[in-house]
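User: tokens in, sequence out, please.
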């Protein structure tokens, strides 16, 4: 990504093209190697993998999301057990 894009306002706009940008990791943006933006995404829709200017998008923490129940940090086995044995 060009260094001109390493400004909080521009990074938030880029994040909003992926989902709802929450915040920019200022420490990472200052490194000028890569930017990190916290983005809230709708898991019922496909995840964005590329943006218009051929910038790859990487996601962190996807392995911690249960796509059956939508909870973050929920183990799939635990979610299935809750479905089978609700309180």
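Assistant: Sequence out:
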């Amino acid at each position: 990504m060009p260094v001109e894009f390493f400004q909080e306002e521009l990074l938030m706009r880029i994040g909003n093209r992926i989902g709802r940008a929450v915040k920019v990791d200022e420490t990472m943006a200052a490194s000028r190697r890569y930017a990190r933006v916290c983005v809230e995404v709708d898991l019922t829709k496909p995840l964005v993998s590329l943006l218009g200017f051929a910038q790859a998008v990487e996601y962190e923490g996807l392995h911690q999301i249960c796509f059956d129940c939508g909870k973050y940090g929920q183990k799939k086995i635990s979610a299935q057990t809750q479905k089978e044995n609700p309180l």
